[in-house]
Write a structure and sequence with these properties.
Blueprint: H1 2-13, H2 21-42, E1 48-57, H3 64-74, E2 79-85, H4 90-98, E3 103-107, H5 114-124, E4 127-133, H6 143-153, E5 159-163, H7 174-180, E6 185-190, H8 193-198, H9 208-217, E7 224-228
Parallel strand pairs: 1-2, 1-4, 2-3, 5-7
Antiparallel strand pairs: 4-6, 5-6
Length: about 230
């Protein structure tokens, strides 16, 4: 009995073989990666009862971080932020890589223009309402609620726009505005179904302002609401 007990104690004190930590990490990474791919594919078409705020960025000197923080301070949940990026600074890109959850970074290839990457961000958005915000920054608390109220007030309303004239951004020439029925807006709120009705942004136009103005011009006048930026944006 004594010898059996000694053997038992000896077997219990033998150290298990060392695990290969590197291989273990690789296995864990592949399991997590596989789950993430499956989960992403499953949820790629999901939507939430909130707003997707899409900010196109093409100027490395633009204060994107300040704009994000301002939006987060003035916007009630639920919402998500998508940065359609073709030209932000390295510091801005590092900041966005550190953010998780509500901020999503949508980048384009070097040969893609801002309108093309903006279309990409629109396809990736999950909100039941979409906002394209460019050239201005909100200053009113619950600014999105003000715009959403306008969209929901009349069932015929398809889009709510904010006029560029109040933000200091130059208007298109009057001749061009009249000829192409273009609108000058720094912000537009609409439902995803509008993209099915009027199509995506024209990627062949020379500037984002012209692409946005031409796209909004496709929405019939009786279905558009125009707000002034004064008190809402700067």
């Amino acid at each position: 009995m004594r010898r059996r007990g000694a053997r038992l104690r000896k077997s219990l004190t033998v150290a298990p073989p060392k695990a290969d930590l590197v291989e273990g990490r690789k296995d864990g990474y592949m399991i997590g990666y596989s789950y993430g791919v499956q989960h992403g594919a499953k949820d790629s078409d999901c939507s939430f009862d909130g707003v997707s705020i899409i900010i196109p960025i093409q100027d490395p000197y633009e204060d994107v971080i300040g704009k994000i923080r301002r939006i987060e301070a003035l916007t009630p949940h639920p919402y998500e932020l998508l940065i359609a990026d073709v030209g932000s600074s390295e510091g801005t890109r590092k900041y966005m890589r550190r953010r998780i959850g509500v901020v999503r970074h949508i980048s384009g290839r070097s040969d893609q223009g801002i309108a093309e990457v903006l279309n990409k961000a629109l396809r990736a958005a999950h909100g039941k309402k979409l906002v394209i915000l460019y050239g201005c920054t909100p200053v009113m608390d619950d600014w999105i609620g003000r715009m959403t109220d306008e969209l929901d007030t009349a069932s015929a309303t398809k889009s709510v726009c904010v006029n560029f004239a109040q933000t200091g951004v130059p208007l298109l020439l009057r001749e061009e505005l009249d000829t192409h029925n273009r609108l000058n807006a720094c912000c537009a709120l609409f439902r995803p179904e509008l993209l099915s009705d009027v199509g995506w942004l024209d990627v062949g136009l020379p500037s984002l302002q012209e692409s946005m103005s031409e796209w909004l011009g496709r929405v019939p006048l009786q279905y558009r609401t125009m707000l002034y930026a004064d008190g809402i944006f700067v």
